[in-house]
Write the structure tokens for this entry.
Amino acid sequence: MQTDNQSGMGHSTSLLLSVAEQLKTPLTVIARQMELADATDAQTISPRLIHSQAAAALTLVDSYLMGLQLLSSQQQLELEPVSVSSMLTDTVHQLDQYAKQYDVTMELSIAGRYEPVMAHRAALQAALTSLGYALIATQATRETSRKRHIVLAGHRNAHGIVAGLYGTGDMVGAELRKALQLAGTARQPFSSLLGSSSAGVFVADTLAQAMESRLRIGRHGRQSGLAMTLQPSKQLQLV
Amino acid sequence: MHVLVIEPDRLLGKTYVEALKAVGYSVAYAPTAQAAIVAADEKTPDVVVLEMLLPTHNGIAFLQEFRSYQDWQAVPVILHTFVAPHTYQDIQPILREQYGVVSWLYKPQAQLRHLLSAVKQQLQVEA
Amino acid sequence: MKQLVTTAIILSRTDYGEADRILTVLTPEYGKLRLLAKGVRRVKSKLAGGIELFSVSTITFVKGRGEIGTLVSTRLNKHYAHIVEDLQRTMLGYELIKQLNKVTEDEPEPEYFELLHQTFEALDELTIPLPLIRFWFIAQIQRLGGHTPNLQTDEQDRKLVADQLYDFDFERMTFVANPLSGRFTANHIKFLRLVFAGNTPKALMQVQGVGQLLPECAPLLDHA
């Protein structure tokens, strides 16, 4: 429970606390599943479930560390031309098992054709995947399966190429908007703002910052979510 | 004996439900506070297992609503939560006296057998 | 029977019969009302999003012959969702609603509605510390109840001065000069004046040294 002892803590401490809180879930799922298998019938254990929970935890830790390392590095970030649509497709594949286990459907939506963006490949992938885990967790609590749906979308706008993840319901947009607005000023760990899935959002934002971008609330059709705008590469064009 | 498990993570919820069913309890599962009210309305639980960190409405808001219904005022509640116990020590008396919380389990450390034991203890008290 | 419309904040809800609920609400125009919400099944409980705690709503009701009127309809105006994002904030919210419900047994003035409204605003603002909100709330309850401490003159009716130290006489609710070892300074008194003048918790957060002033002033309200 958040207490006034935690008021005034720095951003990095809040982020660390948030990541630590969020790790409790996948690790507890793994521990309890193993216990259940031990106590009942070994066939009840699902290796895929264990694997996807472990992958979620590892992604969170890895992405968190990468974000901190990139932000604190004195060296220029190595950027390269990266295809947003390929990134989003890879993200769908990475999240597929996890989403299925939470009964969340995913959809890829790429509007038009556009050039690659200049990005740090690993950071962009980590950001999209972290965001995906967070949004799946949020959507998983929605009561009807029809509403447990996220869209991974890319499109071009006046400022660049936008890559984002969106979910159903205003709750996603409103909650995330408040959380991002408060990120600079809140005296409480981010987990209090969004429940236990918030760390992935802020890790993704840290990675975006390392690439001189930020996560922003965006809309895709009737869905709201988070997206980052990336600068297209002037050098290459997709054929 | 009927148990209502309120747990936002569906996989964790499924695990707890399976564990409780395996020892013979009838179990209902709800991922949110409102779903829990609906589930309790369908069948009054003999004990509630509650995660405090719920989406939209937290566990306290659930308890406040749950206790406002006369037939549910005496249903014991076991806190089974990711919130570390030392952070809510100061409000434990209020949770006990006002909200009928009878037992406290910290999920990262509480094994399934601890949960089963807490539920069994409560249902034996009632019987 | 004439239908009346007003804004309302729910203070409590209790079961009544098989499917009804009695709501106690606070309104600016009609004070505290007890209204029967008929046929409110649990599936439509407040958590489904109708009239909720920590909300301001517009209600339509009819007055009853006795103490209890009938709720006709509600429309949610604002729900202070941040309050339920933090467990301690939620608990404080319920505690303050309960306190206000207690002190408004008789016909409450509109100011009590405004007090609760401002309390929700403060609780919903996650940067405002809870001890400040609690202190401010108790001070406003005292102010509205006519129990304001004397923040202008000391026990000998002399104007309170900036370079003097004071203690506080709880019986007479007034400051007593104690040049050698008084615990309260001009800063404490200025802070208290701001609090009892009805400044919001958000405004009070700007007071320099509020973090220290608050715990030192808290005993003044504990005894009241």
About this structure: Helices of chain A lie at 11-39, 47-72, 84-101, 121-139, 170-182, 191-194, 198-210. The longest strand of chain A covers residues 149-157. The domain at 10-230 of chain A is CATH 3.30.565.10 (Heat Shock Protein 90). Chain A has one domain: 10-230.
